[in-house]
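Training component of the fellowship. As part of building independent skills, the fellow (R.M.) carried out the full modelling exercise for a liganded target. The chosen ligand was thiamine diphosphate. The inputs are recorded below so that the supervisory panel can assess the work.
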Amino acid sequence: MSEHSVPLERQKWMYETMVKIRHYEETMVQVYTEGKTPVFNIGAGTVPGEMHLASGQEPAAVGICAHLTPEDTVTAPHRPHHIAIAKGVHLDRMTAEIFGKVSGLGKGKGGHMHLFDPGVKFSCSGIVGAGIPQAAGAALACKMKKQNQVAVAFAGEGAANSGAFHEALNLAALWKLPLILVIEDNRYGISVPKEVSTAVKSNAVRGSAYDIPGYHVEENDPLEMYRVSEEAVDRARKGKGPCLIEIETYRLLGHFQGDPELYREKDEVAGLKEKDPIMRLRQHLLNQGVQSNVLDTMETRVRQAVDQAYDFARDSEYPDAEAALEDVFAPSIQ
Amino acid sequence: MSEHSVPLERQKWMYETMVKIRHYEETMVQVYTEGKTPVFNIGAGTVPGEMHLASGQEPAAVGICAHLTPEDTVTAPHRPHHIAIAKGVHLDRMTAEIFGKVSGLGKGKGGHMHLFDPGVKFSCSGIVGAGIPQAAGAALACKMKKQNQVAVAFAGEGAANSGAFHEALNLAALWKLPLILVIEDNRYGISVPKEVSTAVKSNAVRGSAYDIPGYHVEENDPLEMYRVSEEAVDRARKGKGPCLIEIETYRLLGHFQGDPELYREKDEVAGLKEKDPIMRLRQHLLNQGVQSNVLDTMETRVRQAVDQAYDFARDSEYPDAEAALEDVFAPSIQ
Amino acid sequence: MVTTKDRVLTGNKALSEAIAQEMERDSRVFLLGEDVGKYGGIFGSAEKLLDRFGAERVMDTPISETGFIGAAIGAATEGMRPIAELMFVDFFGVCMDQIYNHMAKIHYMSGGAVKVPMVLMTAVGGGYNDAAQHSQTLYATFAHLPGMKVVAPSTPYDIKGMMISAIQDDNPVVFMFHKSLQGLGWMTPIDASQGVVPEDPYTVPLGKAKVVREGRDLTIVGIQMMTHHALEAADRLAKDGIEAEVIDLRSLVPLDRETIIRSVKKTHRLLVVDEDYRSCGMTSEIAATVAEEALYDLESPVRRLAVPDVPIPYSRPLENRVIPGVESIEKAVQTMMKEV
Amino acid sequence: MVTTKDRVLTGNKALSEAIAQEMERDSRVFLLGEDVGKYGGIFGSAEKLLDRFGAERVMDTPISETGFIGAAIGAATEGMRPIAELMFVDFFGVCMDQIYNHMAKIHYMSGGAVKVPMVLMTAVGGGYNDAAQHSQTLYATFAHLPGMKVVAPSTPYDIKGMMISAIQDDNPVVFMFHKSLQGLGWMTPIDASQGVVPEDPYTVPLGKAKVVREGRDLTIVGIQMMTHHALEAADRLAKDGIEAEVIDLRSLVPLDRETIIRSVKKTHRLLVVDEDYRSCGMTSEIAATVAEEALYDLESPVRRLAVPDVPIPYSRPLENRVIPGVESIEKAVQTMMKEV
Ligand SMILES: Cc1ncc(C[n+]2csc(CCOP(=O)(O)OP(=O)(O)O)c2C)c(N)n1
Ligand SMILES: Cc1ncc(C[n+]2csc(CCOP(=O)(O)OP(=O)(O)O)c2C)c(N)n1
Ligand SMILES: [Mg+2]
Ligand SMILES: [Mg+2]
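Fellow's submitted model of the complex:
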């Protein structure tokens, strides 16, 4: 892991945030099974519906969000929690949304794939690729408003084969939009390995189809992600246009909870766990002289925040059934 | 104009076919105005509806179709006549279709943008980009049938910014399909110049996004198109996979007939006419010692074929109105 | 009555004037789409806007409908008020995901926290032999899916007023203009494509149908071109003593069921005329509404005229066969009046 | 009566068996889609097919629906007989152009010269809290547009028989299977997802509705899950002396209007229940058909139950509110029987 130029404070923030994300996702693994045992039933329990967790993919989220402000826009795909947390989405209301509670970000209407927090300009959606043009539009708005905000779209490596990817990148390049596309290459789109879906090894080469830089981050390295993102965000803020970053990352869990994962060898995940980026960054911080009790304090703090969010969600009320008919249209007058 | 290795017979065929296409399109310019003067009304006259002509773009069509057999598939876009003629579509029935007659390829149901001649595996459509995945599917069928046919998709440079382009090329590259994508860069998508629509100068570079060759043919050169296509078709037939060819070509007429062409300078077309590829190839043939009366005879022959096609169309009957309700579904049993 | 002081505009000029006035008023409004710049929109929706507002607010786009409509959504959620033009409604299939899963649902999915104030403007309609992929109206394709307002005005006056309302609306509005009603120099000139349009900005509410001809014998509901055909048929029928009430639907979503039901309760007969496909179309919805809410007021079965579930054929006699016209309306009414 | 000799299969096994048998019979049949290989289809439609037929005929695709559905069309016009899986019908918006402008229209536009013998198979339905972009049925979105057959079977027997018919049909067929009726191990187990399925190949005709319960008091038309809810409601209503006739629609295009009308002429009352959106939906089309063709047979207004034109919300009480269920059907019937 190279270390050039990542300020210690940022490293600590990344570490803390990755721990927070991991604890969030691991808690969700548990919560999601509530009411689904002994027989797994996707529609039952505390949290029903599909659940796409991102344990292992923390570096993609923290490495770039470290450079963003609440005024920068982020769109995320169906696997959104790590990105939402790194972007600073309201954790209590996000969790309540996932629980389907009225105190949730979307009053329970959106759910885990549809988290909207306009306070920090975060959104996500369940349609692969769809967030990329929308982020381009947010970047266009930044440009039109002549502010120096940027927009970041996250997408999986599978999404890089969707038409939306191509159309949005061409637009962004053409209009020199402050857009950064982060491709989280976790090797799979559900069960389909990258080499079965993608004609090129690295999507970074696809930058040349739009005459924009394509960066490649190896080995799920949060510090390298930080450095590359710094350049990418800086370019975008300065009006130098879009770029794409592909990061090699790892999905420690199934595509969704309940995935039998028959498409990968059992020991693949064991191998990935040995390379856990959180452990690696922790070791790296210790190597730099950070005291382990400092890290422990951080861990305790974020664990508490996560646990509190789950408590908040649990203690909240379900929406009234009739609320289903509201919010189709906003009051018309602007 | 370089000349290496194009057999004279093929040069003559290209010349003859280009003359045929040009005469076809110039006749259509006239026929299309029938019933539309003094006031132009798109829905009136002998041939109603939109009319996209390809005068000037002959080299793209003949340069590659010179390498194809009736068993190879071609899909064309909304500007299809030159390609159809080069592919050997039944000219009488094609013209009758454009006239809306019952003797037409589609019994008058399709029209100028929807010409289907399964006899020579030609089809076209009015939706930009849509033919590319379909050609990939035809190429897939060739591969599955273990025959050495290929499929060629034609598209405008504007279409190279559509999602269909990206998805189809990735598929074709991944599956090593015998697909050749020909991009006719006529500088405009309707009124929008290439530099306003496309983030790269040449779409040839986009081949690298799929790890396939991208060829670039300059200056609307039919012989160069022939040579590049030879390599492309040969690769495809040998199972070496897809490629894309972009040819710089020129649209001598408006996007459609009736286009006021306010988006380009008047003298642009005059300049293009001076570089007319048909004149250039004629001169080239004369330089190689072909007698001008040989060329004259060819010209007369194809002019007659074209005129006959228009006569056929004119003399044919309109379909019975009730036929509109037929052909929605084929008889169900295969 | 048109006085000499009244300004007569074509549909397209009413439309581009509405956009210009809103762009003038509100710097957040901008326009993007294919050929909206120098060309001014293939159907004249953006006439002269580039000259007036420049290329930053009147943006030609690549042929990337998912890309630029998606971008409009992203810009709208960031507080801009984009108008995106989908050149022909027939092309919806390359970008429908952005339209129906995002533009239309973000407000709901966010529990009302995010607004998507944008207009998706698109040309609809046939009648000039542009065949199966360039002649559709697809009204019901949009009206079936929740979360977007869908309007289809039929006069220059309503075009201007409803476009201004659409731009000012905080919701996504699909604004369908009919090619034949744009009054373009290269289409069949028809009276209906011209009309009196006040110069000052004004709004016409979205969601209200309009009785455009009073009558006692039956109700004809029309949409856009079909309203004009219905009016002409009504004039002919009046000579036979049949007085048709004609309703111009104007808005598909919200649907003004009250106006329709009120009329049917008066006339006791209903014919719905639609340029869209018949099955699961606006004719179905309106007929069903009446069967639910005014069944006992009907004195004869509901009748529907629409494209008979075939793609739009190219050849003139074939297209004429499938798109309802004055004649087919007249005939349908005559038959209905004999039914009891 | 199920005898010990009868084989009971889940919906997904009936479906994958149909595909396997057709692939066995006809070497032109192949399958492509996301996760149809090792995974066997997210909803089990392709269970064990990869092992049996290999990766050349059971092809995992990239997430490129326009690409691979377009490719299926191209292969079909070249004489292959592809089955393409669109994982969730909700994703139609990224590929609808290929589906409705090409797959569905090529036969017509070519004047019958080109055939497009393919199946577009897709999962529909909600009820397990998968929210606005993964819970729709969108029946009418497809049924509105001409040129494709659209079927929605509700029993394992019909799933197998109709899939075999669909594959053998020379037309494009949109085959919608309902997730809850696949009998998957990770969904709520319901009786309706299992049924007797003969091992030998057989066909069930496309385009025929089926009376699945006879009754004299009213007709309930259901589609897929809604048919099962209607049957359960009918059993409950029978205890109150109300005998509902229940029709399983099975095929949306062609629509079997005769079976519906025949039933309404007998029962004189109609309730249509649909898991799709209400406006311009199948409920509209069926209600309109009856208002046209059996108006005088109706003894009370037609009633429709469907998703009330809102996106499908995530939270359990909200989703339950908008998707019709046994209770809401029962209540609607009780109200109807009091109406005259
Ligand atoms: C347009 C579309 N097609 C298919 C799907 C179903 N789907 C959901 S996630 C997914 C895989 C996505 O893979 P990738 O982009 O690599 O993201 P990852 O799940 O690996 O994070 C698929 C196919 C979808 N949601 N949207
Ligand atoms: C999906 C789609 N979007 C827009 C159009 C409208 N349209 C027809 S042709 C055309 C321009 C095409 O440009 P190009 O691909 O360069 O082909 P050319 O017309 O120059 O031959 C456009 C925008 C369409 N037919 N389909
Ligand atoms: Mg992935
Ligand atoms: Mg062009």
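The panel noted the following from the submitted structure. The radius of gyration of chain A is 19 Å. The CA atoms of residues 119 and 305 of chain A lie 19 Å apart.
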